[in-house]
């Protein structure tokens, strides 16, 4: 028999591999479904790719790859026989078979036991070889089987651990000297002390200087002021500001020229008032140690509808999502998205096509994993009610609660979470996250992965018209940007119980001073109309440059809807940062309406009697010139050494001066690229002309080089930077226009819009760059629902009436976004349903006034 098995496996030996370090073995979940070894058909693990497949999907993998040998894993679960010893550990057969396998349900060891079974299966004849079978199998096959059975979970992070081992502790960490200069770093609003950069900022741990990092080839980075500061002061360590979490931060040693570890980072940061690393981590169990725990308990009870006998529901659309540990934000967001028809149609409606055309590793394909999750939620396959006979039997045993817990266990989104969080410093962690940030992250991924196909996130996209007025000249400018979510302020001063809040605050301060117990907290009650009014009120524009005055001036901005989306997302701005960097949540309730009419906030555009600001961009000012350049713009500082170096090459002197000026004195190489790109222009060798403080400013036709028209051409220095990287000038201009002159996003746009693949009809189709919480669209297609009067070269929006009905909301319980728990309520078939992780029940009292993110769908015009 041994010889027969050996001969049988000989043709397949080249396809059988032994897992190596770094290989992930998916032996607990199918790549296309939520089938597992506990499922009726078990799980088939490919002996070459180590991917797992359920019974209905393994044939597809065999046909696509020709891989014939699979390991079939099956776990048999059964109730212990009457008389079994209470408290016994569940029995196993073949103890090593499922080592490190994660259970898909929670078993009570006193009531259940399981037996594991493994065998090799050869396709297409389904020839089975039971395991273990050491004597009869070739040595290579035996080693491969043993390695697969003992392989760790595919979701354990091994790469970050190995990376951390490579980073060494800085020799400056222990003896770092910190200056007592009184510097305190605020929790937001940072910018480089030597320029206006607000990204890639580093905090020097000696003197608290906040400076920008290096410029990188991908358009990110800064002007290198942090490094210059080290050369001047020799202060060695700096921490990147946007990487600070309760678990640590990214620290760089200028002297050692590498990333380092600082074991005393918490102490070093607290020197500058950053106590984030000191705060106690909280989990989703609701246990808090702060003095505000009492209102949170009430909040937990109200939002989860605790104390009510909620009726569980089963079937299609009523499947829960298992909490993987601080992953409730993901479950709440995905439940809402897959209750939107466009997401259902895109991923579940096209399920077979997506699966058939999936790559060889479907675990790394976004569309496949979205389709898998959508099918799991909507099929009802993983949300089946207990059989009547089982129910009667369990009631007889008075174990109804145990049955309920086992029946409604939800699906586990491990594979999707691992994919969408890959490379993200926060979502890839096991910490609690902000559901709003994750929602926008998912929308961004949907956009990036929908090129050339239907884009379901179109239903969220809308245009915001921003009206900016110069307070001195009274002239205005109208611009539009893309957004996906409206963030509504929560003005505490508009609370209807203001007197009660003031009385509580006085009692609280008195109790703190006298070291007595704090009074019962009071929740602010704010009218929804006040939130909407706060959103529409004018706001000051920081660092506003008036093109009418050719100087900085005071400016105010108001926002209105240039279009209304099919689905409107409203986020209540409940979270803020304390002075200790700890994100805190405002305790408030808002009477959010079931029906919403926003038509009065429709944008109107330029009004009669309004005079537009000239379409001029401010002149380029070097960071070092900001102190006095405003008074001497007629004689800009130009790197004469770079000018002479270019002139020695034979180029006209005035052209060299313009090249150096318009590339921001970034060196002769950058200026040379500008010269090559502008040699054919008629005014190439004419003197450099700039707008003056005393001159109201010529028209754009009179001075094409002195100021850049807002709607015609992006800044020349940005174009020069892109062209110096090898991108065509026309493509660079198109990318900058599509991203509102944001250099980093323009680079991303170029990579997602290859020039040779664009048709003439779509060449100008790009999104207006949104604010920080929006994303550029990476695909274009015609849509009958698009606004008929909108230019097809603009962003795709599904405009319509601004009348909406509430259909879902996500609520947060806890003191901050870094702790607590999320649940969502969704209106289905005229009744509200609460999705609390794996539990899905009919809602008795939906707490609409305590929501965090609200989802409205547009009402038909009829």
Automatic annotation (TrEMBL):
<dbReference type="InterPro" id="IPR009060">
    <property type="entry name" value="UBA-like_sf"/>
</dbReference>
<dbReference type="InterPro" id="IPR001607">
    <property type="entry name" value="Znf_UBP"/>
</dbReference>
<feature type="active site" description="Proton acceptor">
    <location>
        <position position="821"/>
    </location>
</feature>
<dbReference type="Pfam" id="PF00443">
    <property type="entry name" value="UCH"/>
</dbReference>
<dbReference type="Pfam" id="PF00627">
    <property type="entry name" value="UBA"/>
</dbReference>
<feature type="domain" description="UBA">
    <location>
        <begin position="713"/>
        <end position="753"/>
    </location>
</feature>
<keyword id="KW-0645">Protease</keyword>
<keyword id="KW-0788">Thiol protease</keyword>
<feature type="compositionally biased region" description="Polar residues">
    <location>
        <begin position="771"/>
        <end position="787"/>
    </location>
</feature>
<keyword id="KW-0072">Autophagy</keyword>
<dbReference type="GO" id="GO:0006914">
    <property type="term" value="P:autophagy"/>
</dbReference>
<keyword id="KW-0677">Repeat</keyword>
<dbReference type="InterPro" id="IPR050185">
    <property type="entry name" value="Ub_carboxyl-term_hydrolase"/>
</dbReference>
<feature type="compositionally biased region" description="Basic and acidic residues">
    <location>
        <begin position="788"/>
        <end position="798"/>
    </location>
</feature>
<dbReference type="Pfam" id="PF17807">
    <property type="entry name" value="zf-UBP_var"/>
</dbReference>
<feature type="binding site">
    <location>
        <position position="225"/>
    </location>
    <ligand>
        <name>Zn(2+)</name>
    </ligand>
</feature>
<feature type="region of interest" description="Disordered">
    <location>
        <begin position="757"/>
        <end position="798"/>
    </location>
</feature>
<dbReference type="GO" id="GO:0016579">
    <property type="term" value="P:protein deubiquitination"/>
</dbReference>
<dbReference type="InterPro" id="IPR013083">
    <property type="entry name" value="Znf_RING/FYVE/PHD"/>
</dbReference>
<dbReference type="InterPro" id="IPR028889">
    <property type="entry name" value="USP"/>
</dbReference>
<dbReference type="GO" id="GO:0004843">
    <property type="term" value="F:cysteine-type deubiquitinase activity"/>
</dbReference>
<feature type="domain" description="UBA">
    <location>
        <begin position="637"/>
        <end position="678"/>
    </location>
</feature>
<keyword id="KW-0863">Zinc-finger</keyword>
<feature type="binding site">
    <location>
        <position position="212"/>
    </location>
    <ligand>
        <name>Zn(2+)</name>
    </ligand>
</feature>
<feature type="active site" description="Nucleophile">
    <location>
        <position position="328"/>
    </location>
</feature>
<dbReference type="InterPro" id="IPR038765">
    <property type="entry name" value="Papain-like_cys_pep_sf"/>
</dbReference>
<keyword id="KW-0862">Zinc</keyword>
<dbReference type="GO" id="GO:0006508">
    <property type="term" value="P:proteolysis"/>
</dbReference>
<dbReference type="InterPro" id="IPR018200">
    <property type="entry name" value="USP_CS"/>
</dbReference>
<dbReference type="InterPro" id="IPR016652">
    <property type="entry name" value="Ubiquitinyl_hydrolase"/>
</dbReference>
<dbReference type="InterPro" id="IPR001394">
    <property type="entry name" value="Peptidase_C19_UCH"/>
</dbReference>
<dbReference type="Pfam" id="PF02148">
    <property type="entry name" value="zf-UBP"/>
</dbReference>
<keyword id="KW-0479">Metal-binding</keyword>
<dbReference type="InterPro" id="IPR015940">
    <property type="entry name" value="UBA"/>
</dbReference>
<keyword id="KW-0833">Ubl conjugation pathway</keyword>
<feature type="region of interest" description="Disordered">
    <location>
        <begin position="689"/>
        <end position="717"/>
    </location>
</feature>
<feature type="domain" description="USP">
    <location>
        <begin position="319"/>
        <end position="859"/>
    </location>
</feature>
<protein>
    <recommendedName>
        <fullName>Ubiquitin carboxyl-terminal hydrolase</fullName>
        <ecNumber>3.4.19.12</ecNumber>
    </recommendedName>
</protein>
<feature type="binding site">
    <location>
        <position position="195"/>
    </location>
    <ligand>
        <name>Zn(2+)</name>
    </ligand>
</feature>
<feature type="compositionally biased region" description="Acidic residues">
    <location>
        <begin position="757"/>
        <end position="770"/>
    </location>
</feature>
<comment type="similarity">
    <text>Belongs to the peptidase C19 family.</text>
</comment>
<dbReference type="InterPro" id="IPR041432">
    <property type="entry name" value="UBP13_Znf-UBP_var"/>
</dbReference>
